[in-house]
Design goal:
Elements: H1 2-7, E1 14-18, H2 25-36, E2 40-45, H3 51-54, H4 56-70, H5 72-82, H6 85-92, H7 97-110, E3 121-126, H8 138-146, E4 154-160, H9 164-169, E5 176-179, H10 184-198, H11 202-206, H12 208-215, H13 219-231, H14 242-254, H15 260-272, H16 283-287, H17 291-301, E6 307-308, E7 311-312, H18 317-324, H19 341-360, H20 372-383, H21 397-410, H22 414-421, H23 424-429, H24 434-442, H25 448-461, H26 468-483, H27 486-501, E8 519-529, E9 532-537, E10 543-548, E11 553-557, E12 567-570, E13 574-581, E14 588-594, E15 597-602, E16 607-613, E17 623-631, E18 634-641, E19 645-649, E20 659-662, E21 668-676, E22 679-686, E23 690-695, E24 701-706, E25 712-720, E26 723-730, E27 734-739, E28 748-751, E29 757-764, E30 770-776, E31 780-784, E32 792-797, E33 805-810, E34 816-829, E35 846-849, E36 852-855, E37 865-870, E38 877-882, E39 888-892, E40 902-905, E41 913-921, E42 925-932, E43 937-941, E44 950-952, E45 959-967, E46 970-977, E47 981-986, E48 995-998, E49 1008-1013, E50 1019-1025, E51 1028-1033, E52 1039-1045, E53 1050-1051, ...
Parallel strand pairs: 1-4, 1-5, 2-3, 3-4
Antiparallel strand pairs: 6-7, 8-34, 9-10, 10-11, 11-12, 13-14, 14-15, 15-16, 17-18, 18-19, 19-20, 21-22, 22-23, 23-24, 25-26, 26-27, 27-28, 29-30, 30-31, 31-32, 33-34, 35-36, 37-38, 38-39, 39-40, 41-42, 42-43, 43-44, 45-46, 46-47, 47-48, 49-50, 50-51, 51-52, 53-54, 55-56, 56-57, 57-58, 59-60, 60-61, ...
Helix pairs in contact: 4-5, 4-7, 5-7, 6-7, 10-12, 10-13, 15-19, 19-21, 20-22, 21-22, 21-24, 24-25, 25-26, 26-27
Length: 1195
């Protein structure tokens, strides 16, 4: 049957021989292999507990080697493929098995056309079921995914036990199954023929049927009978019943009395060890026996556990099945060889744990100074009772490191396994074999975050990037905090501390992508913007990503492996790209659009095919979007531009537009298509706030959808239960879902973005449910359920600037993926894993107020803004910045009042200002520094009045606070961010941060900063975090100087913490510091000239929470402070006496304040109110006076 199947050119691709253990499947394979002759292409024999035999990468390499030896054509093709950059990169980067299969098997085989007159060539995989390890069969997965792509002249024969997973996974190969049960009569005849051949005496032949019944037709049983006949010990009257009887009899004779307990120890090792153990170097320690005793017992057992190259193998998997009772009923078997597999794993877990104590720095071994993650692992192992304090069990260190996680999972101790995986010393010891460590992390579901971080670090490490510890802590800490993964947080902290000790700590680099399974890969676009991205399949079926930028550069990427661009070419005027397939040839095509034209490009041949011209605007023509579709079996494109039209094109033939759709009154930004009852429909959106639906054949406008209050930037469509839905997004920060069944207002308005929404795409997730992804100027990608309630599912963060474009594609693993592009970066996401990635906390919309963040409530004013005074000699300036001010700063003359003097723009249109400070160099040149929620700090000179800002980049999260100081004529800016870092910059020179400061406890972050110059002329930086104030020396590497403590109020939501800090130095050289917490009525004051670190005063007087406080030195050189609170009062305090000087009643709540010192004139207190107005007060000796000549100014 097998020969006939192989010779049939139209036969099934695969044939599977399915039978019980002992049937003789391997014997059949040997016979088939011998009969096939030169058509036998490659053979792989899986073997129980032999790790290389179950490694899919080794399978690929082995098959490629064998085929190359038999087919010269294949060898030549393989050499050509290996010479390509793709393959070299894949091999160097230790790509996964599927990538290697494509490079080393599928591509070379596709270039070979051998003669098939003698039938197809045969690949044999024997005992596929034995490749399973830890409930996973990677070999089977590879075969199921990639073997269906083998050329038709290759046939595949697979043998396996009758296991459900094997049958199900082989379904894509559509195998014809040779089932032993179905073919039982033929199998029984073969068994009888074998018996007639081996039985020697008439008496034995006369008992043939008895022997056959005892054997149950299993060839392995008959093999043992043949052995007994050959040795002359065959006793037909005492035949054991089946394989179980064979094993029971033989093990009883092999293990005389007195060896039972020691033999069980050895059998524990053989049964549970994932690989063959070394009889001399590993077995004694694992079994807890001396070497002589262990080797002596193994000599007795070697008949069934043969020793090759000093390692112990299993003669047949049915032996260990019988020993453990797997597949055999041994409930009533009192045989002393019965081994419980879980108990065996516990035995080896104990041996491994005991061996690892010195690695983890246990107190009993003073080999290392253990870090907290190591101590946690040791405590977990001791708590599980796995430490053998008598040290009778002690696995070799290499074995313990490699296999302890497997044994812990084998006893269902996943909590202990997680603790061990998150031990820093364990990770460091395994750093040279990260691939296997990744495999161990995959065994523990709660270690998914660690696994992702290891995958990303391993990939970049091979490309020569930063040390793995540096990458680990930067990838682990923040995502682990969001998931409350305590063990992983501790590992990240310990890794950071070790990296600091090794002096390799640095700010997060652009290439470091955070772990957490949502973000899969980052593609770096050097010195360029990424303005558009599209996915397509190359001519060889490989998934590729195309990106373009306004500089005209188009790049082709591998979105699976990442790395640098595969190909780069230039197309003038490119600012967007779309991908489609030439229906006639099946070849991929790119439509590159931008200024004036759409260029049709062949990405494989790297050549221009067509140029489509037709859009014409009054001035410059910009084509904003292109979508592809198929009409009557032909490729078509639809485009839109700033000439207010939508046009349909034939991208293959070229020429003028086939159809022009006119109806919009302004620039058209986005287009999409769908089919309704066989009729083409086109959807477009425009600056005029409308979404129009067109007949794509006749050109008639069918439906107008109105609802957006601003420009509509993008549209897409999806289908639910046969009904088409239209998705639109726009400058009003909303995503809208329209149903075309009942036209009218959008049934769903999705809110969440804090700025303009740039793009939207729809896809089907891994559960078959419709999803929508949107991106915007707030730097986020948001996932939505567009069908039911429009619920926000997740927020994906990773970009530090606005996200311009998001698209979806499907890779070889099946689920939809997302690609998003922004400045110099393309990020690739797995949206189905967003729950394990970065979710936005559901704490309401946040608003910023200078150094502040407030939750929505009835108490919270709608808007606050930051204030800063720039006290240049003779020309004091007040700067204000508002969250609702679209990233702008207004400059005022505080001595005269009136309207704003100037408006400066330092950030993107929707970036919110979160910190503001001013400084002067040499009493002449005034500057301001602006922190924003896009992670940047912009420095602007007021002398230039609106010149281009210097942008300081380095934070990966929102900037919370900025401050400035001047030392020896050089100005410095310090900023703190929600990413947990404090960065210090040269404010004028720019460039990289000079100093990075992090807290020892990174579960906290610095909420606010204040800088001052003490009496000795030294710059100091004060930052508040939790219930403490930290003082650092920014000019000496950020060294910590002091830590100040106070009994701050324990807030119900946030715990005890400070949220604002302010400082001043009085005329006598005394440094004063003040701080307060969110909604705390008290302000705490320290005199830094005192040795004590406890507060000097607690300033009490406000009847509600303090919002802002500002320390200053009055005209007499005395230390003062102004504070504002929810009680609608502003208080002036004497910091020396700790008393209130005066109280200023105000009509509405004040969110921020600052003090301006205009030369010889009285100081001015400026208050920023909840209604976006300013009031000025002259600060006089002993009080303050409202400036009647200067009314409240609208901002």
């Amino acid at each position: 049957d097998i020969d006939a199947w192989r010779r049939d050119p139209n036969g099934a691709r695969c044939r599977a021989l399915i039978a019980d253990p002992g049937f003789g499947k391997s014997a059949v394979v040997a016979r088939v292999w011998a009969r096939t002759g030169d058509r036998a292409l490659a053979l792989h024999l899986c073997e129980h507990n032999v790790e290389p035999k179950r490694d899919p990468k080794r399978l690929v390499a082995s098959l490629a080697y064998q085929i190359a030896r038999r087919l010269p054509q294949f060898r030549e093709a393989l050499e050509r493929v290996r010479a390509s950059e793709d393959v070299a990169r894949a091999v160097e980067a230790r790509s996964d098995a599927r990538q290697l299969a494509k490079c080393l098997l599928l591509e070379p085989l596709s270039q070979v056309t051998p003669a098939t007159d003698a039938g197809r060539f045969l690949i044999v995989i024997d005992a596929l079921d034995e490749a399973e390890h830890a409930s996973k069969n990677s070999l089977l997965e590879l075969i199921a995914w990639d073997f269906p792509k083998l050329p038709s002249w290759v046939a595949v024969l697979v043998t396996s036990r009758p296991e459900f997973d094997v049958r199900r996974s082989l379904a894509p190969l559509r195998p014809t199954v040779l089932d032993a049960q179905t073919n039982r009569p033929k199998c029984d005849d073969d068994a009888r023929k074998f018996l007639r051949h081996v039985l020697r005496t008439p008496e034995q032949v006369g008992q043939l049927e008895v022997i056959f019944e005892k054997s149950r037709g299993l060839l392995l049983y008959l093999h043992y009978i043949h052995e007994d006949i050959t040795k002359g010990v065959f006793d037909v009257d005492n035949l054991p019943d089946g394989l179980a009887g064979i094993y029971a009899d033989r093990f009883q004779s092999l293990l005389p009395e007195g060896t039972t307990d020691d033999a069980r120890r050895i059998l524990n090792v053989i049964v549970a060890a994932p690989v063959p153990v070394h009889v001399f170097d590993e077995l004694p320690g694992l079994a807890g026996l001396d070497k002589t005793r262990a080797v002596g017992i193994m000599r007795r057992l070697s008949q069934y556990f043969p020793i090759r190259d000093d390692r112990i193998y299993v003669f047949h998997k049915s032996i260990t099945d019988w020993i453990t009772g797997e597949g055999y009923d041994r409930r009533y078997d009192a045989d002393r060889c019965f081994i419980d597999r879980t108990a065996a794993h516990r035995h080896l877990a104990s041996a491994s744990a005991t061996s690892l104590l010195p690695v983890l720095g246990d107190d009993a071994f003073e080999e290392t100074d253990p870090c907290l993650s190591d101590k946690d692992a040791t405590n977990a192992l001791r708590g599980a009772g796995l430490i053998d304090d008598a040290h009778r069990l002690a696995a070799p260190r290499a074995y313990a490191l490699r296999w302890i996680v497997t044994h812990l999972v084998g006893i269902d101790a996943e909590d202990v396994a997680l603790a061990v995986l998150c031990s820093l010393s364990f990770v460091v010891e395994r750093a040279h074999e990260v691939d296997t460590l990744i495999g161990d992390a995959a065994l523990v579901p709660r270690a998914a975050l660690l696994r992702d971080a290891l995958v990303l670090s391993n990939r970049l490490q091979t490309a020569g990037s930063a040390w793995i510890l540096e990458e680990l802590w930067q990838r682990l800490i923040e995502p682990a905090k969001r998931l409350d993964a305590t063990s992983i947080i501790q590992l990240g902290r310990d890794a950071r501390d070790m990296a600091r000790d090794e002096q390799v700590v640095s700010a997060r680099g652009a290439c470091l992508t955070p772990a957490g399974s949502a973000l899969r890969c980052a593609l770096e676009v050097p010195d360029d913007h990424a303005d558009g991205v599209a996915a397509f399949r190359d001519t060889d079926g490989s998934l590729r990503l195309a990106s373009c930028s306004r500089t005209g550069m188009v790049r082709i990427w591998n979105p699976i492996t990442g790395g640098p661009a595969l190909r780069t070419f230039r197309s003038n005027g490119a600012c967007g790209v779309s991908a489609f397939v030439d229906v006639e040839s099946g070849a991929p095509r790119l439509a590159i659009f931008g200024r004036n034209a759409i260029v049709i490009w062949d990405p494989a041949g790297e050549r221009e095919l067509q140029v489509l011209l037709g859009h014409r605007a009054r001035k410059r023509t910009f084509i904003n979007d292109v979508a592809a579709f198929t009409s009557k079996g032909e490729s078509r494109l639809v485009s839109c531009a700033n000439d207010c039209t939508v046009r349909i094109w034939d991208p293959i033939v070229g020429g003028p537009a086939l159809l022009v759709l006119e109806g919009h009154s302004s620039t058209v930004y986005g287009v999409a298509t769908y089919v309704d009852e066989g009729k083409l429909r086109v959807v477009s959106c425009a600056r005029d706030g409308t979404v129009l639906v067109w007949d794509g054949i006749e050109g008639n406008e069918l439906v107008a959808l109105a609802g957006h209050s601003s420009r509509v930037n993008s549209v897409t469509t999806f289908v639910v239960n046969g009904d088409v839905r239209v998705v639109s997004c726009g400058g009003d920060s909303t995503v809208r879902i329209w149903t075309l069944v009942a036209v009218g207002d959008a049934p769903l308005v999705l809110k969440g973005h804090t700025g303009s929404v740039n793009d939207v795409t729809a896809f089907v997730d891994s559960k078959g449910e419709a999803r929508v992804a949107s991106c915007g100027t707030d730097g986020t990608i948001r996932l939505w359920n567009p069908v039911a309630s429009g619920a926000a599912l997740a927020v994906l963060r990773g970009h530090v600037t606005q996200v311009r474009n998001v698209t979806t594609f499907v890779d070889s693993s099946g689920p939809a993926r997302l690609a998003s592009c922004a400045f110099q970066q393309i990020l690739l996401w797995d949206p189905s894993a967003a729950a394990a990635g970065v979710r936005e906390p559901s704490r309401g919309r946040s608003m910023s107020c200078g150094l502040w963040e407030f939750r929505d409530s009835e108490e919270v004013p709608p808007t606050f803004f930051g204030l800063a005074a720039v006290d240049a000699v003779g020309a004091p300036t007040l700067a204000s910045g508002s969250r609702s001010g679209s990233g702008t700063v207004r400059l005022w003359d505080p001595t005269k009042g009136g309207e704003a003097l100037h408006v400066l723009r330092g950030h993107s249109d929707t970036a919110s200002i979160t910190g503001l400070t001013g400084f002067v160099i040499a009493d002449a040149e005034p500057f301001i520094a602006i922190g924003a929620d896009d992670g940047t700090v912009s420095v602007l000179t007021l002398a230039a009045r609106g010149g281009a800002p210097r942008v300081l980049r380095g934070h990966s999260g929102r900037v919370r606070s900025v401050t400035a100081f001047v030392v020896n004529g050089t100005a410095y800016v310090a900023s703190c961010s929600e990413d947990g870092t404090v960065l210090v910059w040269d404010a004028i020179a720019g460039g990289d941060a000079l100093t990075m400061i992090t807290l020892e406890d990174d579960s906290k972050e610095v909420r606010a900063l204040a800088a001052f110059i003490d009496a000795n002329g030294s710059a100091l930086l004060a930052g508040c975090s939790g219930p403490q104030i930290f003082l650092w020396s920014p000019m000496h590497g950020g060294d910590a100087c002091r830590t100040l403590n106070a009994s701050v109020h324990d807030d119900e939501l946030w715990g005890p913490r400070f949220d604002d800090v302010t400082a001043c130095v009085d005329a006598g050289g005394t440094s004063w510091l003040a701080s307060h917490g969110r909604f705390e009525k008290t302000v705490y004051v320290w005199n830094l000239s005192r040795a004590a670190d406890e507060q000097l005063h607690e300033l009490k007087g406000h009847s509600n929470g303090v919002l802002c406080a500002k320390a200053f030195v009055n005209s007499n050189g005395a230390a003062r402070m102004a504070s504002c609170a929810w009680d609608k009062t502003v208080r002036i305090w004497d910091l020396v006496a700790g008393t209130s000087v005066c109280v200023l009643p105000v009509e509405s709540s004040v969110g921020v304040l600052c003090v301006v010192t205009p030369g010889d004139a009285p100081q001015i207190l400026v208050l920023g109110h909840e209604d976006d107005s300013l009031t000025y007060w002259d600060l006089l000796e002993g009080g303050a006076r409202g400036r009647g000549s200067s009314p409240r100014l609208r901002v």
